[in-house]
Amino acid sequence: MTKPRLHPDETTVAVLMGGWSAERNVSLASGEACFGALRRAGFNAIMVDVKRETIHSVLLDMKPEVVFNALHGKWGEDGCAAALCETLRIPYTHSGVRASAVAMNKEMSKVLFRAANIPVAESKLVDIELAAEEHALPVPYVIKPVAEGSSVGVHIVTEAKNGPPKIILEQRDIFGDRVMAERFVPGRELTCAVMGDVALGVIDIVSKASGWYDYQSKYAPGGSQHILPAELSPDLYRKVQLYSLLAHQALGCRGISRSDFRLDDGPGKEPELIILETNTQPGMTGTSLVPEMAAHAGHSFEELVTWMVNDASLDR
Fold first, then answer.
1. 150 given a catalytic annotation
2. 300 tagged catalytic
């Protein structure tokens, strides 16, 4: 049975944003952009800067028809916000509790990726003190938090670094007691979004400053160049789309997701494509990738957020 479309002028949408994770500022930017688009689409959208102590009572008092989850990082992207909406029985956007929690955990998501025959880079979990004292893998490799997004806390370890990254001991609030050490895959940064059950276009991300898609490249104006559609062979282009859809399905995602990849296609070698992660709460800022991919598929920003609100549900 087809779900009836909501009437924007009769629909109050609470846009959850901010929060208290390491990605608070990005979430505020996403929330403000989505709020503006929802208002332009005719919805009674209300911005809610999420506070741990008050969010429950705010939503009870507001009684919105839909929660638009524009939170990023811990407590917003890891299933906690979805669980709150399930408890209050308010339909919400994006993925449900289980898919959000598993996708946020890079080690757990890799288990499902492997089961779906999506290639991943070799990795292992290491105690943070050990990772700061000796190389966890042969260089070059990557140290990253097990459960963070937006490239928060990511360190690429090379011979030039002269040892493992001791700075991670000062970032324990981001990493926790264990870190992920992952084989570094050189080459190109690719990304592809899934909207419902359709893979959108593939973007080749060219970072302007650091040479990889770090936090600055993601969110600073002009920090990266987005080539859409990516200049790939037809077979590779379709493979990125297929793996994105398979990852979305393997995790049990709903609504919008975005999967990130590395492609090592240097001269004289067989191209290696590996998935890095799937984002269940991809950015929706002025420099974000999902609105750009949606526009390439013919969906304006207003149409995109309208689709997301109409897709909102419970028991996701």
1. yes
2. no
